[in-house]
């Protein structure tokens, strides 16, 4: 299994640049400023507005894994709220990414678990299923398989296929160094009169 950088170590924009600007989940945003995540994907595909599969995922998800959920992009029912995120925190989940909605945004920020979602709504979820755990899904138009690297920050979320993680990390570090050199050059610019 690849070694994933800690949350915030590599900007999502730079990770995407390292993948020829692919891999960014469209429309998936952090629910609170400063939220950052980095870890292997644990995937769930659920019926829109239904969180029974998320509760089932908590039976097998491992410390540091990022719960990534294809909820069909539904914005009418929140798949998670404060109580679900308390459970995620107790299990040391690395974060949650929803192609769907969440609620209890202020409480989620207080809990400190990074949550990224397509929408926010106060309406609660259904709990009847069906769902699928551990297979390939799509989130924000990006394919996600279990073990893919999921990285998120204030700019959004990117997904790196598991077999490309080491290469993308190396390229991203090189890009960060190049950006530092350009920033230093910008500091030396002299205004023209």
TrEMBL record:
Top-level EC class as recorded in UniProt: lyase
Residues that, per the record, bind Mg(2+): 104
Domain of life: Bacteria
Keyword Hydrolase annotated: no
Gene Ontology terms describing biological process: methylation
Gene3D superfamilies, A to Z: Ribonuclease E inhibitor RraA/RraA-like
InterPro entries hit by this protein: RraA/RraA-like (IPR005493), RraA/RraA-like_sf (IPR036704)
Annotated EC: 4.1.1.112, 4.1.3.17
Keyword annotations from UniProtKB, A to Z: Magnesium, Metal-binding, Methyltransferase, Transferase
Binding site for substrate: 81-84, 103
Cofactor(s) annotated in UniProt: Mg(2+); a divalent metal cation
Molecular function via GO: 4-hydroxy-4-methyl-2-oxoglutarate aldolase activity; metal ion binding; methyltransferase activity; oxaloacetate decarboxylase activity
Reactions the enzyme catalyzes: 4-hydroxy-4-methyl-2-oxoglutarate = 2 pyruvate; oxaloacetate + H(+) = pyruvate + CO2
SUPFAM superfamilies, per database record: RraA-like
A Pfam family this chain is assigned to: RraA-like
Subunit structure: Homotrimer.
Job description of the protein: Catalyzes the aldol cleavage of 4-hydroxy-4-methyl-2-oxoglutarate (HMG) into 2 molecules of pyruvate. Also contains a secondary oxaloacetate (OAA) decarboxylase activity due to the common pyruvate enolate transition state formed following C-C bond cleavage in the retro-aldol and decarboxylation reactions.
Record family assignment: Belongs to the class II aldolase/RraA-like family.
Protein name per UniProt: Putative 4-hydroxy-4-methyl-2-oxoglutarate aldolase
The organism of origin for this protein: Streptomyces radicis
């Amino acid at each position: 299994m690849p070694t994933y950088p800690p949350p915030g170590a590599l900007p999502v924009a730079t990770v995407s640049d390292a993948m020829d600007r692919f891999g960014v989940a469209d429309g998936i945003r952090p629910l609170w400023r400063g939220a950052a995540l980095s870890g292997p994907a644990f995937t769930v595909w659920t019926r829109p507005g239904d969180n029974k599969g998320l509760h089932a995922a908590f039976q097998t998800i491992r410390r540091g894994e990022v719960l990534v959920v294809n909820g069909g992009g539904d914005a009418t029912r929140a798949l998670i709220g404060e109580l679900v995120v308390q459970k995620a925190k107790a299990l040391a989940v690395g974060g949650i990414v929803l192609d769907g909605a969440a609620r209890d945004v202020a409480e989620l920020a207080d809990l400190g678990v990074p949550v990224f979602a397509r929408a926010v709504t106060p309406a609660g979820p259904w709990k009847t299923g069906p769902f699928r755990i551990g297979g390939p899904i799509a989130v924000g138009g990006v394919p996600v398989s279990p073990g893919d690297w999921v990285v998120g920050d204030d700019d959004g979320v990117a997904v790196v296929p598991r077999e490309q993680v080491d290469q993308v990390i190396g390229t991203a570090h090189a890009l960060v160094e190049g950006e530092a050199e350009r920033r230093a050059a910008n500091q030396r610019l002299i205004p023209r009169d």
